[in-house]
Amino acid sequence: MPPGRTVKLIVYEVLEFACLCVPVLVVLERFASLMRRVKFNDVTAYWLVVAASIAYVTTMSLLVWVPLKYFILKSRGYFKEVNWRPVTLAHALLCTLPCFAILIASSKVQLDTGVLYDRFSELPVSLVLFALICMDIIERVRPYHLRGQGHSLDFEIPGPVLTHLEYVSTVSSQVQSNRAANGSALRSEVMSDSPSGRWADTDGISRSSSMAYLYSSHSDLGCLRFFCFRDPRHELFLETFMFWLDTVEMIRVAGVQDIYNSNWVFPIYILSFFSILRVVVTPKSQMLTCLGVVAQDLPFLVLRLCLVNVYGFVTPILYIMKNLLSCLTFVYFRFLTKLKVFSRGSMF
């Protein structure tokens, strides 16, 4: 029986290959059915599109996907040092981009004929997005063990094991102890000088914040301690779906009949694909915030305002406020706080 790490690797690769091929085949088969209806039940057009979809999946798998995965598995150490993810980039270019192009082409075909045959409303669009989310989850959960505690990783480098540890006082610990002794002496002096004998709030003494409970991780819950559970693998699933929620809502707007029958479907899918390219950057990268504003929040804000102006509230106001607040807070904390007017600590 192969080891567990090999079985996990095979399962991951099979799932990623399925997420790559299945959405393309489903969307192209749906487009083939649309072409058969447009061509007045022409079976030849249907099978031509189906054959083209099978040829495309076979070609991209043999010429791009398999060599890329082989190179990544053989040079795993190199891709640990880079700040981007080539697998997700390949999935976005080989699967998501063709599927969006087919959806745009189907809308264009029906606009030219003047008859609405198929809006590609639920199954193909949801399948494309779900495959993209699954690909992102697999790439992010790959370093973790699927059994045991969530803090253990697969790519930990073995090192020397310490068998005996002895506490050695450092300079920083001595400085902290001296500060604590000075602080206790200062508190005793303040309490003695205070007429009530209680603690007096003075400058230079650390104060307890009224919002400290928001950042405290230690609490005595008693019988509710059973609910105290945090696992990075579980949080990874939730964070990934929240990461794609804005893009999913924007693509949902394209499924509205009035918008799907208009030219607004083109900028929606184009801007949605540019927002998807954010997944190429690693989740912990410092570039992700800037890319989120430039590639998603700002274009989505302008597009949603235009759609609301033309079609009414086809998109919730909540997402408009989310895009607006993201842009404003990014500009403020990135640029305005560096000015002298906003960098004074005595103002707030």
Task: Walk me through what this model shows.
The protein is 64% helix and 0% strand. The longest helix is centred in the first third of the chain and has 35 residues. Among the domains are: 144 residues, no CATH class; 63 residues, no CATH class. It contains 12 helices and no strands. Helix 5 runs antiparallel to helix 7. About 8% of the residues have low confidence. By secondary structure, it is mostly helical. It is globular, with a radius of gyration of 28 Å.
Give the gist of this structure.
The chain has 348 residues and is mostly helical. The chain is 64% helix and 0% strand.
Features:
membrane; 64% helix; 12 helices; mainly alpha; 0% strand
Sum up the overall morphology in one term. Answer: globular
Helix amount = 55-70%
Structural class: mainly alpha
Main β-sheet, in a few words?
A: none
H-E order: HHHHHHHHHHHH
Q: Compute the average pLDDT.
A: 79
Measured distance between first and last alpha carbons: 64 Å
Beta-strand residue fraction: under 5%
- The value of Rg in angstroms is 28 Å
Transmembrane segments: 9-32, 44-66, 87-107, 262-281, 317-337
Protein name: Transmembrane protein 236
Keywords: Membrane, Transmembrane, Transmembrane helix
InterPro entries: Uncharacterised_FAM23-like_TM
What topology emerges from the helices and strands here?
Blueprint: H1 4-38, H2 43-74, H3 76-81, H4 86-113, H5 123-141, H6 171-193, H7 232-243, H8 245-254, H9 257-260, H10 265-276, H11 288-311, H12 317-334
